[in-house]
Write a structure and sequence with these properties.
Structural class: alpha+beta
Order of helices and strands: HEHEEEEHHEHHEEEEEEHEEEEHHHEHH
Radius of gyration: 22 Å
Number of strands: 17
Strand content: 25-35%
Helix content: 25-40%
């Protein structure tokens, strides 16, 4: 085992598997920040998972604020290492039939979309989502005793409306429903069966064209909505007695819109309205996190926003969850950086209850198998 592989194994062994895993990633100083002579106020220790933040307005003798997480990634971290230690264990669990969620949180312009998507070329710049696509189909190709069916859907929450990014009319509002079998789900959400990495990439790119983005002073292509790309992996294996056994894992890959201050983003008109809704739903997410880790809390306010409703299972429910908190290194973002770290610090105490989803009633594989059995019976009757 090489040094990098040992480090990956050590990081994965550190954590109670039922707690939400929280990692922090700090982007490099931007060209503008360097030109403006901004100072870096963040230091990270990858071995201990610690972050140190110095108050730029503070006394020279004031010690930096200190936080500890499951893993920290500084400005030199490679995309591949970030994927291996953060998302790959979750993707492997989904292939076994668990639910998994990876979500990126942070201020506008801190690199959430870079972490989740990255650049498609060169390949080493790819983020968690494209690497997940490759990992899923590589795993399927090397598993011979099971049949798999993979499907994907893509939605956004824009101004507290749920929109289907794969629909012919992506501006249509969809309803969130809940039932005992399926839990919380989006009614009439488009879902495509995908047979390989290229098909999955095409689904993502088709949805991205419909995503709401807009320029702010802090980010030219600021995400103005929360997006959730969902992959459902059904697998079927045959037992020794001939009975078929189906498992279904669901993976949510979530790119949250950035928390922001109007004074910094220069948001006006539609941008300001969007920012207000974004901040409200992120505040609702913070309230849910606080309620989950407060032993005295009697009520978890999942219904306060569409985002928290859809992430209900990911926070305190039947899901293995990783939160990637993204932050900037520069002195003028001290307040936002501190706020992100406090938010992330609370989330690491959330306990989930993940279990394998066995023989789900709405499995598409079962429907296909039943159709094949009926067709065989028809052919035999005709023969």
């Amino acid at each position: 085992m090489n040094a990098a592989a040992k480090q990956v194994a050590a990081i994965q062994a550190k954590k109670d598997p039922e707690c939400v895993k929280v990692v922090v990633r700090c982007r490099p100083m931007s060209r503008k920040e360097t030109e403006d002579n901004r100072k870096r106020i963040v230091e990270m220790d990858g071995k201990t998972g610690e972050v140190f933040v110095k108050n730029p307005e503070g006394d020279a003798r004031e010690p930096p604020k200190q936080f500890a997480f499951d893993q920290v990634y500084d400005w030199n971290t490679l995309q591949d290492f970030c994927f291996q230690t953060t998302a790959e264990p979750i993707v492997n669990s989904v292939l076994q039939g668990y639910n998994g969620t990876v979500f990126a949180y942070g201020q506008t312009g801190t690199g959430k979309t870079h972490t989740m998507e990255g650049q498609w070329d060169p390949p080493e710049m790819r983020g968690i989502i494209p690497r997940t696509f490759c990992h899923i189909f590589e795993a399927i190709e090397t598993t011979h005793e099971q049949n798999f069916l993979v499907r994907a859907s893509y939605l956004e929450i824009y101004n507290e409306e749920v929109r289907d990014l794969l629909s012919k009319d992506p501006k249509n509002k969809l309803e969130i429903k809940e039932d005992v079998e399926r839990g919380v789900y989006v009614k009439d959400l488009t879902s495509y069966v995908v047979k390989g990495v290229t098909e999955m990439e095409n689904v993502l790119l088709a949805g991205k064209k419909n995503r709401s983005v807009g320029a702010t002073l802090m980010n030219q292509d600021s995400s103005r909505s929360h997006s959730i790309f969902t992959i459902i992996i059904e697998s079927c294996s045959e037992h020794d007695d001939g009975t078929k056994h189906i498992k279904a894992g669901k993976l949510n890959l979530v790119d949250l819109a950035g928390s922001e201050r109007q004074s910094k983003t220069g948001a006006t008109g539609d941008r300001l309205k969007e920012a207000t809704k974004i901040n409200l739903s992120l505040s609702a997410l913070g309230n849910v996190i606080s309620a989950l880790v407060d032993a005295k809390s009697q009520h978890i306010p999942y219904r306060d926003s569409k985002l928290t409703r859809l992430l209900q299972d990911s926070l305190g429910g039947n899901t293995k969850t990783v939160m990637v908190a993204n932050m900037g290194p520069a002195d003028y973002n001290y307040d936002e950086t501190l706020s992100t770290l406090k938010y992330a610090n609370r989330a690491k105490n959330i306990k989930n209850k993940p279990k394998i989803n066995e023989d789900p009633k709405d499995a598409m594989l079962r429907e296909f198998q039943e159709e094949i059995a009926q067709l065989r019976a028809l052919l035999e009757a005709q023969g």
